[in-house]
Specification:
Helices cover about 45% and strands about 0% of the residues. It is mainly alpha-helical. It has a domain of about 30 residues.
């Protein structure tokens, strides 16, 4: 004699969908942050190799005389 076992269908529990959306958004934000902080400067430096940033010499002391001599 054949025994047929019908398993009950899985309950539709949607309570975890919002949590998974939140976790996915946090992970996406973290990857975007890491890309902008580390990846983008590395990509820019590889395309602009040989071109250095300009050097600006700033004096240590600036003499500003506000008293005008007549």
């Amino acid at each position: 004699m054949t025994t047929i076992v019908n398993t009950p269908p899985r309950e539709n529990n949607d309570s975890g969908n919002m949590m998974s959306l939140l976790v996915g958004a946090v992970i996406l934000f973290a990857f975007a942050f890491v890309f902008f902080v580390y990846g983008l400067p590395m990509i820019r430096s590889s395309f602009g190799s040989g071109v250095s940033a300009p050097q600006v010499n700033v004096p240590e002391k600036i003499d500003v005389n506000i008293n005008q001599s007549e």
